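Project standup — Tuesday

K.O.: blocked on the structure for the chain from last sprint. Re-posting the sequence here as requested.
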Amino acid sequence: MIPLYRPGDSTLHRMPVGAKFLGIFLAALAASLFRENLWVLLTIWTAVLSGYLFAGVGLRGLLAQLWRLKWLVVVLTVPQLIFLTPEETGFNVSRVLAVVLLAALFTLTTATSDILAACEDALRPIDRPLRRVGLSAERISLALSLTIRSVPVILSFYAEIREAQRARGMRPTPRATVMPLLVMSLRHAEETAEALAARGVR
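H.V.: unblocked you, prediction finished:
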């Protein structure tokens, strides 16, 4: 499993998980409610830039995150340019990128153990009703944590496949990309399940 968390002692690293979640939620809410407000968009992007700088990730790390999102930009931009103006498309793509980068900053500055602990604390008051339907705060928090970590892991698999295709001079096609990606993802899921079973998690 690829470790995304970058240990550090910045204010963002020490900030409670709930406060970080709240910040991302408010940024996403503001980006949704004030869709065409340039000042709101600039404020969110200022928060993104400040967050990466103060967290010690730096401008280089921010640009690396942006580069990883290049295909998302393409997928978001091309269809919208058919129906919307370039200005509207730019607003929409910028809003999504800003929120995604904030979420990425969250994973860079928050240890998985802290995410698990925060989820368990939030679900603890309703643990008894959950157990009546076969769930528990621990299981739900574990599922959330695995989901959060699986997304960048699968993206890294995609990058590995593309790198291998480039090294062999292959043209990227859906079939040549999806099949190995599916195999690598299933293998990763199997390894994760075996690791959890070895630790007594059922």
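K.O.: great, moving the ticket to review. The mean pLDDT is 85. The two ends are 19 Å apart (CA to CA).
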